[in-house]
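Q&A log
Question type: sequence-to-structure
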Amino acid sequence: MPAPIRLRELIRTIRTARTQAEEREMIQKECAAIRSSFREEDNTYRCRNVAKLLYMHMLGYPAHFGQLECLKLIASQKFTDKRIGYLGAMLLLDERQDVHLLMTNCIKNDLNHSTQYVQGLALCTLGCMGSSEMCRDLAGEVEKLLKTSNSYLRKKAALCAVHVIRKVPELMEMFLPATKNLLNEKNHGVLHTSVVLLTEMCERSPDMLAHFRKLVPQLVRILKNLIMSGYSPEHDVSGISDPFLQVRILRLLRILGRNDDDSSEAMNDILAQVATNTETSKNVGNAILYETVLTIMDIKSESGLRVLAINILGRFLLNNDKNIRYVALTSLLKTVQTDHNAVQRHRSTIVDCLKDLDVSIKRRAMELSFALVNGNNIRGMMKELLYFLDSCEPEFKADCASGIFLAAEKYAPSKRWHIDTIMRVLTTAGSYVRDDAVPNLIQLITNSMEMHAYTVQRLYKAILGDYSQQPLVQVASWCIGEYGDLLVSGQCEEEEPIQVTEDEVLDVLENVLISNMTASVTRGYALTAIMKLSTRFACTVNRIKKVVSVYGSSIDVELQQRAVEYNALFKKYDHMRSALLERMPVMEKLTTNGPTDVTQPNGEAEPAVLETKPSSSTLQPTSQANDLLDLLGSNDVTPVISTAPPHKPASAGGELLDLLGDLNPTGTPAPAPQIPHPTFLLDGLSTQPIFNDITAGIPTITAYSKNGLKIDFAFERSNTNPIITVITIQAANSTELDMTDFVFQAATFQLQLLSPSSSSIPAFNTGTLTQVIKVLNPQKQQLRMRIKLTYNHKGAAMQDLAEVNNFPPQSWQ
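Response status: OK
Response body:
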């Protein structure tokens, strides 16, 4: 058989291939020749064939058939064969393959070989791919080599010991005696690997960490010799003596000094010397300074040293290298909470980074800028951040807008400034703000009673001819509906009032309704605003009636439902209109996921508790309540409330307004400010029992069972507060298709419906939808309930009404 081609020739041949197919053909042909040679047990060219196979493996072609040949080369007595065999084992074998266990005896023999280079090959292979079984068997041999006087073997044995400890942590104590003299070695390679070994042991064992803390003075001495020593060509890198060893020692010092006063005190001086004597003109020096800063910040260092570290990071911000600037911003972001004042000194440099072209630097600078905002610099920082919001890329706008909202809420110097800032954000990046921005701004405006005229005038001018920023249009529509009379009367004192007529205001709102840029939710805000103006404006009521009646046939179901209900309010319940549409009261602060929280003196919040005394704003004459119940198809049940979102507006019309203004079967946020019901400020929805002292023995009832939909009522009552009944609805679906967009509405005594667990009910009774009703029944009258169900099933919209009269006496007596 002719001699196989050499590796160099194979590489040259493969590089001549013009296409991928041609290269594959060459590889397949050569692999076939190598397989034939392996089958013939050709010892002469085995080393050459395995070397070629490894090159093919590096190109991504399969080479697993050469694994056993690697073991044969390892068993060979030739150094050249062993070198290729061990290289092949490291590339082609790992601990997931049982073949690697066949190497254990060969590695053990080579660890005891008379030639240091063979021993080095065995150590490298064990440290690269040794399994836990191999490490247990060979740990003793590694420990012996760690004590040898040969520096070449000691550095390799130290790295191999690191791998053994990672695989078998319980063998760590075996290497403890051998580490005593490692730091006395003059050879930098041994010192480097020794520090790596000590670092690994300290990270994995608290006992080892405590044991090695006594080595801090020795490590400090080594580091001091490195920075004070003269030029050494063997270890010099860009004028710095062995920066790799310096970095490793600094990392070990960081681990040893963490949460330890004595160790931290011992290394303070050397850290200051490194920070002041290291050259910063080259990247090597910057790497050492960065590790020094991390060490200073992680140990219990002196305050002056921490300021020095932050000043180093401040100098990094002026570096032309983008990577160094990014590292500095990231490090400052981690330290800003503990050393706020020191970081504040570099505020102008950090703000300048907002103008950087690199998007990653911009993001870090933005996050750090928000972390630096406080009551003293709020005006200047907001000016810079608003300028950044104007010019930044779209992916930054949402986070930047949220940050400005939070900072303005926390540090606003005045309510006018707060409102102006949020309006500026909505004008600039309204499409990117979070969903809660609109109700939060509405709550802020409502509570700033002296700013109503100024705000409505500013919002009116902001949306003239521009409806692109939907959140801004929603807030403006709401404010115009609430305070349109102030806009027309020109009562603004903060700036020059504008002259606006009632018809001009209605023109703007009608333009919002017909604009192609207006979202469905925004149209709901605008229509509700127009309806509210029927009680604020005296001369345009007939025009408002026409507008409302037009949208009674809108293809938008939400808008159509509102218009129909508003028409009914004009025609059948006009005597209630002024009470229902009167101005909103001052709102309490909302939480994002539940009822209103009460802020405690220590800054913490606790859920508000239900008041047993009914709120006067929720009590309505029985005749008015029964009239409104017609909207659900009944007039024989007492006051009503709808189920839509968990928070609904409250007014003098109380819960009755919800039915007219905020029925929301589509699940879309209703265009009205969201505040909790004043009478039902309960703690959040929970899967646990509502009360600790539950009245036992209340039976469950089936309230509805029709068309595959079954609704059961389960009851809870408190022994100490029996006027509250908590009803848990469980809706199940026995049909073959899911029921989607499910909305449950109810009418009975004063009640609150919390958010449902889902908007869909799974088919085949594979799951249930749950919802909690909290009923206040001070008179302990017999419970009756009118329910309205709306859902989609089999592509059709379903709606049904039912009355529940079979409440068990224990639920209300």
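Response note: The first helix runs from residue 7 to 15.
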